[in-house]
Amino acid sequence: MSLITKPTIYGNQRIRCVLPQRIVEYFQLDYSFVNPEINVESAEVKLYQKLFPLKKIPTLIDIDYKTGKQFHLTEVIAILYYLLEPLAVEKKDAFAKQIIGSSLQEKTEVLKWLSFVNSDFQFPLVNSMNQIRGTENYNKSVFDSNIAKIESIIDNVFTPRLTAYTYLVGEDITLADFFAATWFLRGFGFIWDKKWAQKHPAVLRWFNTVSKHEFVAPIFKDFALLDQLPSPVPKKKEQKPKKEKAPQASKKEKASKPAEEAEPAPEKKAKHPLEALGKSSKFVLDEWKRQYSNQDTRPVALPWFFENFDPSEWSVWRVDYKYNDELTMTFMSNNLVGGFFNRLSGSVKYMFGCLVVYGENNDNGIVGAVLVRGQDFKPAFEVAPDWESYAYTKLDVTNEDDKKFIENMWAWDEPVAVDGVKKEIADGKVLK
């Protein structure tokens, strides 16, 4: 138990985890975030596996700093209210009180919608999405049945309410709207397109209104209606364990074996687009990573890099997070970088770099320098779903200013200059 030293929320990038995280960020609550699917051998994740054998997410651990006693909580609706209720009651936060319900009737109405969306609406939606993504076997009758259930709910529950009212509960926006809209975001990503949206103007008006609210706007920043719906894809079959070799058949027996009994050829793994560039003829990435890890950065490693760097086969890019104004706690910003780097794991054999968090709580930013095989950043970065949250600028190692920037980003020993103001590096991550 002592491994957790501050309140912690375990979660990942799934939609049910985004609102607890957003509450913590928006209200600046003192919680750490841990993705239990990353660094599974870490002490924090092992503790999660022990305490929560069902491995549910999101999961919350709170700590009474006076007694050291821990409180464990699962289920997203319970976690949402656990985070918001003290803000509304103890801290008298007007917005928190509004979104959970200002009266008993409003509060129970909000809970009604949360429960409804989390069960009746979510189940057929998730099943449909999984069949489209190929994580569940496509079954036309099951798929069509789920789509029909979703349409019935929208036509008979959401549309009548949203035709007569702006929001789902009362006259103000509430947690019911935010929670439902996050699930509609998933629907718009898989089963509804522009044509569908035109046929449901009340729902689209409500969704656009909710998604632009400052509380949840970062969640919806990349939203765009689909021009065309994706088709369901068959689920990839799991490879069966190899059977022990049977006695070798004669050529005659082999010839008589029916064609349908022949074993299918193994599926070829898709190649990374940068593999086509081949190995670098001069600059060896693994050797550079060894230099960086084992040698003093300024006096030894960096001179080695610039001496051996081959600009014809490699490029260096300045990487800036686009939404620094939305960042709050520095540890959260660093967690954001860590998540981004984890999602770049498919390209790590073609990359090296550092992103640092500069500044202080409620006034910080993310910037760094990343080495990439080839002359285009996109093939290396686009393996991460959130790669477009960053801006990429090519650097010239022969330019003294660019060279100095690279050195500072990889050495971490000098402040970051932002609009002429020097800001100390608070934290950072290395991609290697």
What labels would you give this structure?
about 425 residues; alpha+beta; Glutathione S-transferase Yfyf (Class Pi), Chain A, domain 2; Alpha-Beta Plaits; 3 domains; 5-stranded antiparallel beta sheet; 4-stranded mixed beta sheet; globular
Quick overview:
With 432 residues, the protein is an alpha+beta fold. The chain contains 15 helices and 11 strands.
What does the model show?
- The chain is of the alpha+beta class.
- It folds into 3 domains: 8-90, Glutaredoxin (3-Layer(aba) Sandwich); 101-220, Glutathione S-transferase Yfyf (Class Pi), Chain A, domain 2 (Up-down Bundle), CATH 1.20.1050; 282-431, Alpha-Beta Plaits (2-Layer Sandwich), CATH 3.30.70.1010.
- Helices cover 43% and strands 15% of the residues.
- The chain has 15 helices and 11 strands.
- The strands form 3 sheets. A 5-stranded antiparallel beta sheet has the order 8-5-7-6-11, sandwiched between helices.
Main β-sheet, spatial strand arrangement? 8-5-7-6-11
Q: Shape, please?
A: globular
Rounded mean pLDDT is 87
- Based on CA atoms alone, the radius of gyration comes out at 26 Å
Indicate the CATH architecture of the largest domain: 2-Layer Sandwich
Question: Approximately how much beta-strand content do the residues carry?
Answer: 5-15%
Number of domains: 3
Q: What is the overall number of helices?
A: 15
The CATH superfamily label of the largest domain reads Translation elongation factor EF1B, gamma chain, conserved domain
Percentage of helical residues? Answer: 40-55%
Structural class: alpha+beta
Q: What's the count of strands? A: 11
The major β-sheet equals: 5 strands, antiparallel
Low-pLDDT runs of 5+ residues are: 254-263
Q: In the CATH hierarchy, what is the class of the largest domain? A: Alpha Beta
